[in-house]
Write a structure and sequence with these properties.
CATH topology of one domain: 2,3-Dihydroxybiphenyl 1,2-Dioxygenase, domain 1
CATH architecture of one domain: Roll
Number of strands: 8
Structural class: alpha/beta
Shape: globular
Helix content: 25-40%
Strand order of the largest sheet: 1-4-3-2
Distance between the termini: 61 Å
CATH class of one domain: Alpha Beta
Number of helices: 5
């Protein structure tokens, strides 16, 4: 009987699902996060040389920007040389908590912290313990607040 009902519904058109059922989105993840930068070349150097991301695509028509491959998503860096963002980012990130967190394996966390220090990236008092993991907080050259986080602690 269970097999007969869907066939009967399909054949007769008697099933009329509610509109909300038909409009359910099935999002599969984050495609990209877009950040404004004042100098695309400087930002590209930071995100590739310091953080190790690779440029996936370059765009020169319209607003100059690049897409960085971040593993399971992308980071889009849009060059907007005259856009003043520092005070707004500070308000959103210091008064609020806006930031972007990158995931790293715990075995590689200390290496990432060392690289940030070697590149003279200010990590404040970090790293800090957050729940069952550790985090280090810093900013890119355009004041975007960033975090590297690892779950668990199995390094020495």
């Amino acid at each position: 009987m269970a097999l007969l009902v869907p066939l009967l519904v399909q054949a007769t058109g008697l099933y009329n699902p509610p509109i909300s059922f038909l409009l359910i989105m099935q999002l599969s993840g984050i495609h990209h996060i877009a950040l404004n930068v004042r100098d695309l070349d400087r930002a590209e150097q930071f995100y590739t040389d310091v953080l190790g991301f690779k440029v996936a695509k370059r765009f020169s028509k319209g607003l100059r920007h690049i897409m960085l491959d971040a593993g399971n998503s992308y980071i889009a860096l849009f060059e907007v040389p005259d856009l003043e963002t520092q005070s707004h980012i500070e308000q959103l990130s210091e008064t609020g908590y806006m930031h972007f967190a990158f995931k790293i394996q715990s075995a590689r966390f200390q290496l990432a912290v060392q690289k940030l220090r070697k590149k003279n990236i200010n990590i404040g008092e970090g790293p800090v313990r957050r729940g069952d993991g550790d985090s280090v907080y810093f900013q890119d050259p355009d004041w975007n607040h960033l975090e590297i986080h690892c779950d668990g602690r199995d390094y020495s």
